[in-house]
Amino acid sequence: MNKFLIFVMGLVIGIAVTLFTLYLFSTVNKNDNEDLGLKLFKEKGECIKTKNEIKIFQVIEANMALAKTGDYPDEIVLLLINYDGKSYYDDQKIIVPAKKCARQIGTYKYSTKMEIDKTVPAVVIE
User: Fold this and answer.
1) What average pLDDT does the segment 66-73 reach?
2) From what superkingdom does this record's organism come (predicted)?
């Protein structure tokens, strides 16, 4: 075989392998939060008004849970997130410490059992 033909085939195969590798990296590094329905803001938002207690009613991931704050009719549903390695569990009560708040960092979109789409604030306690 001609050395030039071998060189061209090697070049084409090298480019193809590089493009395939870049494709794999882009799919692996895709933002998993968006797959969960979570959209984070570029900057943190305001504090959500709470009565210093938040009650978990459904755990989404170990560190993410749907929760309620307040009493009817002032009740707010929110997604509570922690980045401290702590896990949540159903019916857990979270006390918001003095001088801290549930700060909105994004929104969370989910469907209820009755297939109604809901969007709620995503918050962290800080």
Assistant:
1) 85
2) Bacteria
